Amino acid sequence: MASAAGAAAAGPKYYILNYKYVPDIVERRGPYREAHLAGANKKLEAGQLVMAGAAGDPVEGAVFIFKNITKDDIEAFVKADPYVQNGLVPDYSIKPYAVVVGSP
Fold first, then answer.
1. For the CA atoms of 79, 81, 85, 88, what is the dihedral angle to 10 degrees?
2. Which strands, in side-by-side order, build the sheet including 61-67?
3. Confidence class of residue 12 from pLDDT cuts 50, 70 and 90?
4. How many CB atoms lie within 10 A of CB 89?
5. Which segments cross the bilayer (predicted)?
6. Angle CA(39)–CA(13)–CA(104) in degrees, nearest 5?
7. Which of 101, 92, 84 is nearest to 32 (CA)?
8. What angle do CA 89, 36, 73 make, to 5 degrees?
9. Which of 5, 51, 68, 95 is deepest in the core (most CB within 10 A)?
10. Residues with Cβ within 8 Å of residue 76, at least 6 apart in sequence
């Protein structure tokens, strides 16, 4: 019988990118939002981003689910993001994500 980790390794490779936003993100994101969303949509169209969105109420961060992409490519995505370049994301993390329930 295969372990859950072994079963997950046989399918697509996923990562979670978590952004921590500045407290006043909603007020400050305006000038950068279109380019920020365009970068995410480019990864979505390439089949490398499954979904993404803001987290919290009020908004305190964002979550991105990537698949079949390298951690280095996600790092490049982060560094190119206008939110990061303009100080709206003071912290982020990238972690492997093993889907064990649900349809990838």
1. -120
2. 49-55, 61-67, 14-20, 91-97
3. confident
4. 20
5. none
6. 85
7. 84
8. 80
9. 68
10. none
97: phi then psi, degrees, rounded to nearest 5: -135, 120
Q: Give residue 62's region: left, alpha or beta (phi > 0; psi -120 to 50).
A: beta
Average pLDDT estimate for 86-95: 98
For residues 12 and 86, what is the distance between their CA atoms, to the nearest angstrom?
Answer: 33
What value, to the nearest 5°, has the Cα angle with vertex 83 and ends 81 and 86? 110
Q: What is the rounded distance in angstroms from the CA atom of residue 24 to the CA atom of residue 59?
A: 9
Nearest of 62, 47, 55, 54 to residue 104 by alpha carbon: 47
Q: Let me know: does 33 contact 77? Beta carbons within 8 Å.
A: no
The whole-number pLDDT of residue 38 equals 98
